[in-house]
Write a structure and sequence with these properties.
The complex is a heterodimer of chains A (306) and B (718).
Chain A (H helix, E strand, L loop, with lengths): L1 H6 L5 H22 L4 E6 L3 E7 L11 H7 L3 E8 L3 E7 L15 H18 L3 E7 L3 E8 L2 H13 L8 H11 L5 E6 L5 H13 L3 E8 L1 H5 L5 E6 L5 E5 H25 L3 E6 L4 H19 L1
Parallel strand pairs in A: 4-5, 4-7, 7-8, 8-11
Antiparallel strand pairs in A: 1-3, 2-3, 5-6, 9-10
Helix pairs in contact in A: 2-10, 4-5, 6-7, 7-9
Chain B lengths: L2 E3 L12 H12 L2 E5 L3 H36 L2 E3 L2 H6 L5 E7 L8 E2 L2 E2 H14 L6 E6 L5 E2 L8 H9 L10 H12 L6 E8 L3 H10 L9 E7 L8 E8 L4 E2 L3 E10 L5 E9 L2 E10 L4 E9 L4 E8 L10 E9 L3 E5 L11 H10 L11 E5 L14 E5 L6 H12 L3 E5 L6 H9 L10 E8 L10 E2 L26 E7 L4 E6 L4 E8 L2 E6 L16 H14 L14 E6 L5 E5 L6 E2 L2 E3 L5 E6 L6 E8 L3 E8 L19 E3 L10 H10 L1 E2 L1 H20 L11
Parallel strand pairs in B: 4-7, 4-9, 9-10, 10-36, 12-18, 19-20, 19-21, 21-22, 22-28
Antiparallel strand pairs in B: 1-3, 3-37, 5-6, 7-8, 11-13, 13-16, 14-15, 14-17, 17-18, 23-25, 24-26, 26-27, 27-28, 29-33, 30-31, 30-34, 32-33, 34-35
Classes of the chains: A alpha/beta (306), B alpha/beta (718).
Chain lengths: 306, 718
């Protein structure tokens, strides 16, 4: 723990301590939902022989079994069943809107998401899974490829700390890049306030799911965004594009909350129908509470899968 | 209604409307800046809310301004009243004129209640509200109208007594004739609150002439015009609107047709019975069916047995308006008129002149002595000595070269005294003698309507013929030829005639085809003189052979006869009759009204020459009026006074047509009596309390609206 606490401000000892109590459960949970992934259905080239198949243009030349060629004068490729640990990406929205920190909130949205991400990275690396990080705003900013070992945790935390929330949000492009990068089936955990085109986000996430990736989505929203507690005539400034609008917040609240409910409801219903785990994270809640509810939900999913 | 204020300085408080305006604008301009992750949802919400917000803001702003304005107005104690209150303030004294409709239509009774009594009561109610410093007048608006107080008076009792004693007239309504003097009385008293109160039954026939002839909106707006309708809806009414005899002359024993017109002034079919009476003797009675708003003309053949003045009446059973159920007609029944023909000397063979023959035939075709229209006496000049010209109704002067001086003077006196002279020209006529002796030599008593000049045309060669044109069919002489197919005197050729120059006061009844006068008439004193510029036989024209000659001669004489004396065919109640007489010996005139003793009429002598002027007092009662003129001889005239037919139509005028007038309605059983309404108009009504109530309501609505969250509506999805 101390090592971890030194690593990053995002590895909050209190959080990690609370996670320690959850560790067994978490392990079960993590193992639960990554069970089956360890025995990958993807054909690899590492451990056990699987089968031969004829070469088709496009296959890498290095995979050709030259011995067979010598014997048969035909190109064959020897395939093996892959057996590896879980590989996952933490996809972090670092757009300007993530810098928002409402009145009494202890953390900004980005800090809250980073804490969640670091905590989950710690858990995964601890059980020898590989974890990578993607940060994005109006495009991909940084990609750390998945690796195992605690050095990766340091790299992730360092990257998270150095990232400044700026620019607009463009999730669609980012998810396309991640899909290209992550050819193997894996776990994608997205942290974002999803303030982009709703239908586009849902479609892109569904596409990831279609590629058999396991997708988890943390919808990070500030308490003020969810409750809109303002009462005066207010000049609202957009944190992404700096545009402004004057509105009577008191009279606007009812309409705003209706639309916010509609906004959240749209993700909830669409993603859950597609088997994508969606969790609304209110930054006013303690991080451990959000993780706890996350694990509780995953446990239920694991039990269902078992 | 215009406003006035008890405390007008409080109106300065209206400036406080600036406070909510300033607050409204201030809060719009100083929003609190705040960062927010994304304005997407806010922008969508704002778009959906903007219209509702804007409307609400405007409503709230309006309510707040209204509240302040109402508060200010309430403190200023506004009075709602007429233009007079606005002009002078609510505390000023009042000057007003009560116009009381006492026309015939106000005589309607409904369920035993007289409309006029109700109107008088309303007028007294108005006068009762008169204050100590107020002054007023009363005008009756029958035709021609009576101003009971030519000056505005402070004497309330006198005004009330005048109203209580105001008589119901049987004449028409003259609203304009009453309104004009009322305005004239009020115009000078600008310091007073000025009002004209009109108490009337709102009949269409009374209002339409006023509304069509006058623009009421142009009346001084500081004078209030108030109308107080009485009587409600129009009751059904049937009236005799016409009674006449078409024949120009009614003669004893000769059948005539009495024509009566009965009108139903209701929307329902009606049946009634019409009686025709001569004096008190009922001569005819018949049932009549009338359609809705329909009329019926009834012709009753009748023969008068006695000469003299007769009173004919058409009578219906009494209804809601009994005054128009009787109509009167004064008829003079005459003996056949005597006509003298001064014929030219006999022809050379001792034969009677042809002109004499043609005229005698035209006047009395069958030569009867009994039952003839005219009794003709034909004399030569030699036979006129000792003849009493006044025994004849008309004298024909036919183609005479000259006349004895005594006869000329006699004829002049005869015509001025009421006789009729008809002159035919011919070859014997000497224009120079005629002009010198029948015009110039007689001074003012001349006999010819035109001066004679040369002869035009040639009756021997008959090379050119002329026709009579431009016939004056309005004149009794040519009345028979008025309609199509009634004959045309212009079809007879005239080969020769005298060129004439008519006197200034003469009428040209017909012209020859090239424009020269053909037949000329002039009134001379009480009589008339008619000049025909050609012959009465066929030597210059073939007209005497034509069928139109006889009616012309008859109509000319009858027209002259019937237009003598008092011409009072259409006398309406309240109209004075004025006449000028040329009777030097007239000593006394007495008028006997329908109900009441005979009264002497003063005679006014004008200028001399026996010219008298007589003005009869206005006959207020419908009926038969007999006039007795006593002088060297006694003569009687008569005329009938009937109510105007238009007054029988009781149809009410629609309210929307009455512009400019404030309408005060008396409602039975209601607290809103006329006197209260009169006070409300005169003093205005203090509306500060209702304004405070409206203010409270506005404040309440503002509170509810300002604190009510705006309902979230639908909109585009995120």
């Amino acid at each position: 723990m101390t090592t971890a606490s030194r690593l990053s401000r995002y590895l909050d000892p209190k959080v990690l301590a609370s996670m320690a109590a959850l560790e067994i459960k978490a392990r079960n949970v993590v193992e639960g939902f990554i069970e089956g992934l360890h025995k990958s259905p993807f054909k690899g080239f590492n451990v056990e022989f699987s089968e031969y198949r004829q070469y088709v243009p496009g296959d890498p030349l290095k995979d050709i079994d030259w011995k067979i060629y010598a014997r048969t004068d035909k190109y064959y490729i020897k395939e093996h069943e892959e057996e590896t640990n879980l590989s996952g990406y933490l996809i972090m929205d670092t757009s300007g809107s993530m810098s928002y920190r409402g009145g009494n909130a202890p953390l900004s949205k980005l800090d809250y998401a980073a804490t969640l991400a670091a905590s989950l990275a710690y858990l995964m690396l601890k059980q020898q899974d590989s974890v990578g990080l993607v940060t994005f705003a109006d495009g991909v900013r940084k990609i750390l490829r998945p690796r195992t070992g605690m050095a990766q945790l340091k790299a992730i935390c360092t990257e998270l700390e150095q990232t400044k929330p700026t620019d607009r949000t463009d999730i669609g492009d980012t998810l396309d890049r991640v899909a290209e990068t992550m050819r193997k089936r894996g776990l994608l955990i997205i942290f974002s306030d999803l303030l982009d085109n709703t239908e586009l986000i849902i479609n892109k996430v569904r596409q990831l799911r279609t590629r058999r990736h396991e997708v988890l989505l943390f919808h990070i929203l500030d308490h003020h965004e969810l409750t809109f507690p303002f009462e005066d005539t207010t000049l609202f400034r957009d944190l992404e594009d700096r545009s402004e609008i004057i509105a009577d917040a008191f009279s606007l609240r009812r309409e705003y909350l209706r639309r916010m409910q509609q906004f959240v409801g749209a993700f909830q219903s669409a993603l859950r129908k597609s088997g994508i785990d969606y969790l609304l994270a209110d930054t006013s809640r303690p991080v451990e509470a959000s993780l706890k509810s996350f694990f509780t939900r995953r446990q239920a999913v694991g039990a269902r899968l078992a | 209604m215009p406003l006035s204020f008890g405390n007008p300085w409080f109106l300065a408080g209206a400036l406080t409307v600036a406070v909510p305006l300033w607050l409204h604008l201030y809060y719009r301009r100083t929003p609190i800046p705040r960062d927010f992750p994304s304005l997407r949802l806010i922008r969508l919400s704002v778009e959906a809310m903007t219209r509702r917000m804007k409307l609400r803001h405007l409503v709230l702003l309006a309510l707040r301004i209204l509240a302040l304005v109402l508060l200010t107005l309430a403190f200023a104690r506004p009075f709602v009243g007429g233009g007079s209150v606005a002009a002078t303030g609510s505390g000023s004294p009042a000057a007003f004129v009560v116009i009381l409709d006492n026309s015939l239509s106000m005589g309607t009774t409904h369920q035993g209640i007289s409309l006029f009594n109700t109107a008088r009561a309303r007028a007294v109610e108005i006068i009762d509200q008169m204050g100590q410093y107020d002054k007023a007048s009363v005008i009756l608006c029958n035709d021609p109208g009576t101003v009971l107080f030519p000056q505005l008076t402070w004497d309330k009792d006198e005004l009330k007594n005048a109203v209580r004693n105001a008589p119901l007239s049987v004449s028409g309504t003259n609203l304009a004739g009453a309104l004009q003097p009322a305005l004239k009385l009020l115009l000078p008293v600008r310091a007073f609150k000025r009002t004209v109160y009109l108490v009337t039954d709102m009949t269409k026939t009374a209002w339409e002439p006023l509304l069509s002839a006058y623009d009421l909106k142009r009346i001084d707006p500081t004078i209030d015009l108030v109308v107080i309708p009485v009587g409600g809806a129009a009751p059904p009414n049937i009236a005799v609107t016409e009674l006449r005899i078409d024949e120009p002359m009614v003669m004893k024993g000769r059948p005539v047709t009495v024509r009566a017109t009965v009108v139903n002034h209701s929307d329902q079919p009606q049946s009634t019975r019409l009686s025709i009476l001569i004096g008190e003797d009922k001569k005819s009675e018949q049932a009549i069916e009338l359609g809705p708003r329909g009329s019926k003309r009834v012709d009753v053949p009748m023969t008068f047995g006695d000469e003299g003045l007769q009173h004919v009446r058409a009578v219906l059973p009494a209804d809601a308006l009994p005054q128009d159920d009787v109509r009167h007609l004064a008829v003079r029944v005459r003996a056949p008129p005597r006509v003298l023909i001064l014929c030219p000397p006999p022809e050379r063979g001792g034969m009677t002149s042809r002109e004499d023959l043609f005229l005698k035939f035209a006047l009395n075709p069958l030569g009867r002595t009994e039952g003839a229209t005219f009794l003709v006496d034909s004399r030569t000049l030699e036979e006129t000595a000792g003849l009493q010209l006044s025994d004849y109704t008309a004298v024909f002067l036919v183609n005479q070269r000259s006349l004895p001086e005594a006869l000329v003077k006699g004829l002049s006196k005869y015509v001025l005294g009421g006789g009729n002279l008809i002159t035919f020209c011919g070859s014997r006529v000497d224009p120079t003698w005629y002009n010198a002796n029948l015009i110039d030599g007689l001074g003012g008593g001349y006999l010819l309507p035109a001066r004679l000049f040369k002869r035009v045309g040639n009756a021997v060669s008959k090379a050119v013929s002329y026709q009579l044109t431009d016939l004056d069919t309005g004149h009794p002489a040519f009345k028979p030829f008025e309609g199509d197919g009634a004959g045309d005197p212009g079809r007879a050729p005239v080969y020769e005639f005298y060129q004439t120059q008519p006197n200034p006061s003469a009428l040209v009844l017909a012209r020859m085809s090239h424009g020269l006068p053909g037949i000329i008439e002039e009134r001379r004193g009480q009589g008339r003189s008619l000049l025909i510029t050609f012959t009465a036989d066929t030597s210059w024209t073939t007209w005497p052979l034509r069928p139109t000659f006889l009616p012309f001669v008859h109509a000319s004489v009858m027209g002259m006869v019937t237009r003598q004396g008092l011409n009072a065919d259409a006398v309406t109640p309240g109209t004075p009759i004025s006449m000028t007489l040329l009777e030097e010996g007239l000593k006394r005139i007495t008028l006997t009204p329908p109900a009441g003793p005979a009264q002497d009429i003063p005679i006014r002598r004008e200028g001399g020459e026996g010219l008298l002027h007589v003005t009869l007092p206005p006959g207020e009662q419908p009926g038969f009026y007999r006039l007795r003129l006593e002088g060297s001889a006694v003569r009687e005239e008569a005329f009938a006074v009937n109510p105007p037919a238009g007054e029988s139509n009781l149809e009410r005028i629609p309210d929307k047509k009455i512009v400019r007038f404030i309408r005060l309605e008396h409602k039975a059983g209601s607290k809103q009596s006329i006197s209260r309404q009169v006070v409300a108009v005169r003093e205005g009504r203090d509306v500060s309390m209702p304004l405070l109530w409206v203010l409270l309501l506005a404040v309440f609505i503002e509170s509810v609206l300002a604190n009510r969250p705006i309902r979230a509506g639908g909109g585009p999805r995120i």
